[in-house]
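During the reporting period the student researcher (J.K.) took over the structure-prediction task from the postdoctoral fellow and processed the backlog of single-chain submissions. One of the processed entries is reproduced below for the supervisory committee.
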Amino acid sequence: MSGDGGKSSKALTLVLLALVAASFSVAMYFQALNLMRTAGTSTTTSTASSVLTSTSPAATTRPWGSVTLSGAGASFLAPQMFEWSRALTETVGLRVEYQSVGSGAGRDMFFNKVVHFAGSDPPLSRELHEQYAGGVMQLPVVVGSVVIVYNIPEVPEGRSICLSSDVMALIYRGDIRYWDDQRILDVNPDLRGVLPHQEIVAVHRSDSSGTTSVFTAYLNKASPEVWSKGLVGFTVDWPVDAVGRGVGGKGNEGVTQVVKTTPYSLGYVELSYAITQRLPTAALRNAEGVCVKPTDQTVLNAVRNSTAFLPQSPLDDWSNVLPQMLNPPGRDSYPIVSFSYIFIYRTYPDRAVVEALREFIRWINTEGQERMVPGYLPITEEVRRVNLKAIELLEVGGT
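J.K. obtained the following structure tokens:
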């Protein structure tokens, strides 16, 4: 690419790719998820959509009657929440709707009381926790990982690239332009002659995203001299966009589809999306300098090496938990892991809603932890015990 006209043309092409990919992303994601379930790699088969709900004859005989719980938020959490929603209706007769709109939008809907609960990858900041102290409970419900997916046709199946935090930060800053940049080759000496002289397309979220918050917090913690605190948050003014090599996708679904349809691109998503779309994932150089792939074991290693001290109540401040989990010690620890949380109020005016929420919390912290979608891991027994305290804390009252 050379000259302003070339840059403009490429930028327009990338924007069009993003729009097309976003239009089909949700449908394609769930088609893949259903195919995977049909192949027997998940617990059950379900009909998928961005909002799941169905009617159960048993619902009217339960304490919650005909109540339907509504939630919205993290797309990071969405595949697992959809599976739980389907299973809850089928086994317990409790209906739960979840909208995969991103952590930022989900939080807005929750605090504006449009939905009963929110899904969020990061916990509340210390400031927000203090603002809602005693009124909002935070429950980590799954362990997930943010992975780097890429589309480099020259890298053969069975081999993968390794990326360091410095390299990823420089790519998203727009400072590393080509896949055969010496700084990438230094981390991948065995891929010299394989990585092409092609421009890197850096895909990121276009919406207010908890996955973005986790990813950028990791870059800042692991490479603070390259990725500043000013580039950490739910939305980011991506430097790579300014040089015409950045593309936004809505939700984890959108980022996945842009990468899948754009040669020489890379993006960050929750592991479940890489699995269902069969995209290769990069190994990441961890705090010990070892390149590790995201697997159940490397993610568990990271959790075990980073969560020795956890809050003991859903009403406590959880804001220090995520920083502990990012880039943890351990040779076999994957460096970008996170809980994904649900937020609920301590009081709701409707008794049936309170009873439904109690059953929801009980189920996802017991039977629900045995129904994990590929790409997620169950929370520990200690976290489950903390979450179950919310059942007793929930009350009927004003919010």
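The committee noted the following: The two ends are 56 Å apart (CA to CA).
J.K. will present the remaining backlog at the next meeting.
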